[in-house]
Amino acid sequence: MSEKREGREGKREGHEAKHEGREARREGHEEKREGREAKHEGREARREGREEKREGREEGHEEEQYPGGVPPEWQVTIRRTLKEDGRYLIYYDFVPSPQAEEVELERPREAAERQR
Amino acid sequence: MSELRWNPMLEEWVVTATHRQERTFFPPPDYCPLCPTKPGGFPTEIPESDFQIVVFENKFPSFRRNAPPPEVASYDILEAQPAEGECEVVVYTPRHEGTLTEQPVELIDRLIWVWTDRTRELGARSEIQYVLVFENKGEEIGVTLTHPHGQIYGFPFVPPIPARELAAHERHMERTGRCLLCDVLEAEQAQRERITAENEHFTAFVPFYARYPYEVHVLSRRHLQSLMDLTRAERWSLARLLKTVMEQYDRLYGFPLGYMMVLHQAPTDGKPHASYHFHIEFYPLRRTAEKLKYRASCESGAGTFITDGLAEDWAARLRGEGNGR
User: Fold this and answer.
1) What are A58-67's pLDDT values in tens digits?
2) Which of B5, B157, B1, B155 is nearest to B74 (CA)?
3) What is the pLDDT of residues B71-84, one digit of tens each?
4) Closest residue by Cα to residue B127 from B63, B71, B57
């Protein structure tokens, strides 16, 4: 009887340990996510700073700076879908946007490294 | 089936893509595979009824992801490889009629945005060493679908022409400490007679060494390696200049001139290639309104082009100055 109880106890402890492990992993994920968010906020702040600086520079000088007319800024939505035969299809939707962020393009290998 | 076969004499790959024989050949307008799918209508490549710009994997690709092994076995010096890579179709507009020339500059600007995005994404794939953006336009070039569109190939190797250009850039840089095409541009700007159009960021000209009739090169004034280096202002300038170049072509004979338009970018093989200079080349085939330039024996067998016109005259005609000199 006591062996059976001990077995049950052991099982329960095992469950608890598993649960704690899950909790720890979840916390780890949370921390990682917070880190990512902080990085993103930093990037946003830097971008806003750059935007303000650029707007300041551009104010009143657009005509001089762009003799061919002010280049449009786009807010781009990229929609990826799969066709029935498995081939991909990508829709690019553009909306003119004075607030659109000038995309800072990464070098292909840098992008690949970041994805890794 | 597609595969790569090595030519040990020219030290270059040949792509064998037999399934391309089956590709759609001048379908009637109601069955154009590049039009949006109309409600209740024939299902095209694009399921939605409207769009701005669409990119999709070519149904008849020369290169593909997870390419199957070659059907023939390599034997000694005869080497075959899988044709790993990507082939995409870029549809510029939902409208079936017209050409890129007639589109507003804003659309061309958006198209350059898409080219840039595809270059970045395809170039990030480890198996893709070179991204070739191009447009074949006109029956004389062998186009089988008239709906305005272009293509993008992700090569598993650096193709021979960009490789030769790159080697020449590197040698020139070593020898002089300067960029080869920056020097060409400087010489063209000094002489001016072959320049056909220019703006604050780009110059279009018939090169001194043009091989095709009315061949035009569009060079960035700033030393850039690829589309990914363009600023927003440069992208806009490029869009405007491309439109001007295409309008000059269409005015030449009074009808839309067929051409091959090829973007020449640095490889995406992970090396810096700082010496390379991004540019776009147009190759029309029509030497007169009725006659075509063929790649005949001398061009195909010896690799030497023989032209029956002068770059200076072609440039003058493109500028609308009568018959040139």
Assistant:
1) 445 555 667 7
2) B5
3) 999 999 999 999 99
4) B63
Whether the complex's predicted ipTM is more than 0.90 is answered with yes
Which among B113, B125, B235, B240 is the top mutation candidate for probing chain A, defined by the most A β-carbons within 10 Å of its own β-carbon? B113
The mean of the pLDDT values for chain B is: 94
Identify the three-state secondary structure at position B107. helix
Q: Do B48 and A91 touch (CB under 8 A)?
A: yes
CA B140 to the chain's CA centroid: 16
Interface touch B57/A92, C-beta < 8 Å = no
Q: A67 in contact with B at a CB cutoff of 8 Å?
A: yes
Q: Which residue of chain A has the CA closest to B270?
A: A109
What's the rounded Cα separation, in Å, for the pair B277 and B222?
9
Q: Which amino acid is residue A114, in one-letter code? A: R
CA distance A40 to B110: 27
Q: Which of A68, A87, A90 is the closest to B240 by Cβ?
A: A68
Structure tokens at B315: 């440039």
Instruction: Give A-chain residues touching B109 at CB under 8 angstroms.
Output: 71-72
Strands B202-205 and B216-220, by their bridges, are: antiparallel
**How would you list the strands of the sheet with B2-7, edge to edge?**
B12-17, B2-7, B80-82
> Could you give the strand order of the β-sheet that contains B86-91, starting from the edge strand earlier in sequence?
A74-82, A88-96, B53-57, B86-91, B149-155, B130-137, B259-264, B279-283, B216-220, B202-205, B195-198
Q: Does B53 touch chain A (CB under 8 A)?
A: yes
Q: Please indicate if any CB of chain B lies within 8 Å of the CB of A24.
A: no
* pLDDT at site B325: 46
Q: What are phi and psi of B201, to 5 degrees?
A: -120, -20
B113 contacts A74? CB cut-off 8 A? yes
Instruction: Confirm if B118 and B55 have CB atoms less than 8 A apart.
Output: yes
Annotated active-site residue B149? The verdict is: yes
pLDDT tens by residue, B278-323: 999 999 999 999 999 998 999 999 999 999 999 999 999 999 997 6
Count of CB atoms situated within 10 Å of the CB of B249: 24
Helix (H) or strand (E) run with residue A92 in it: strand A88-96
Q: Say how far apart CA B175 and CA B73 lie, in whole Å.
A: 44
Query: In this structure, what token pair is assigned to residue B313?
Result: 């005259």
Nearest 5°: phi and psi at B140?
-65, -20
Q: How far apart are CA B304 and CA B136, in angstroms?
A: 23
